[in-house]
Write a structure and sequence with these properties.
This protein has 248 residues and is an alpha/beta fold. 34% of the residues lie in helices and 24% in strands. The chain is built from nine helices and ten strands. The radius of gyration is 18 Å and the shape is globular.
Length: 248
């Protein structure tokens, strides 16, 4: 059973179409979702979560149909979205008190452990936190109800290099036991070089390629020029395909 299966997901706007998006994320694996700004990464995530209503397509979370079992699916998911709209003058403790009521498997001990690990003060207001610390707070919430699938939108954005390293190590540890799977979008491709098992590349609202990271990289090595000494990295692949100078 896959952690996440997306089949034919479509959402049409006046100036953009998410076009029959399909990919799968296996149990205990980390998938990076890449693509330039406007490619459809956030629309994909919001459609998976039913934060926007897809026009067609099918999403399964841990074998459950998202359309028919949305509440059960969301109990099994931890979510971090960029630009989360917390009330800026609310204390973290007050937000947590409300959030924890929604999850039947809320683990207070785990939450307090992540507060210590991320050096978060529950007495602080949201407005007192840096962008990076707000991301860490969202992660603390997402990790504290025994979620088996984590969906993260730009989770390392705004973090300093040390904090990013710590989070990437945490992601690897979470997936290593095989009980948690992670889908995260990012524009920092070096993060994926270090921690992703699989890559899904979105271009102009479509899946350009999706698969195990090594096989994914191999599929694009024909884009190398003869004078390049080593294999292409994810960043190189994105730059060349987005500029349209090379054909896939």
């Amino acid at each position: 059973m896959n952690a996440l299966a997306v089949d034919g997901l479509t959402k049409t706007y006046p100036s953009f179409t998410l076009d029959h998006m399909s990919f799968t994320l296996g149990r205990g694996r980390i998938m990076g979702l890449i693509g330039k700004n406007g490619a459809g990464k956030s629309t994909t995530i919001k459609s998976i979560l039913h934060l926007v209503s897809p026009d067609s397509g099918h999403v399964e979370v841990l074998g459950m149909d998202m359309a028919d079992q949305e509440a059960a699916c969301k109990q099994a998911m931890g979510v971090v979205l960029g630009g989360a709209g917390f009330y800026q003058h609310k204390k973290l403790s007050a937000i947590t008190a409300v959030t924890s009521r929604f999850y039947r498997n809320w683990d207070r001990a785990a939450y307090e452990r992540y507060l210590r690990e991320f050096e978060l003060d529950p007495g602080k207001q949201v407005r007192e936190l840096s962008t990076g610390m707000q991301v860490k707070y969202q992660l603390a919430l997402a990790l504290s109800h025994q979620a088996e699938l984590l969906i993260l939108d730009e989770p390392t954005s705004g973090l300093d290099p040390v904090s990013r390293d710590e989070l990437l190590e945490l992601f690897r540890a979470l997936a290593a036991g095989g009980e948690r799977s992670i889908l995260f979008s990012t524009h920092i491709t070096s993060d994926l070089d270090r921690c992703a098992d699989d890559i899904t590349y979105i271009k102009d609202g479509r899946v350009l390629a999706s698969g195990e990271k090594g096989a994914f990289l191999d599929a694009f090595q024909h884009l190398r020029t003869d004078d390049e000494p080593g294999p292409l990295r994810l960043e190189d692949i994105m730059v060349r395909t987005e500029r349209g100078r090379f054909h896939v």
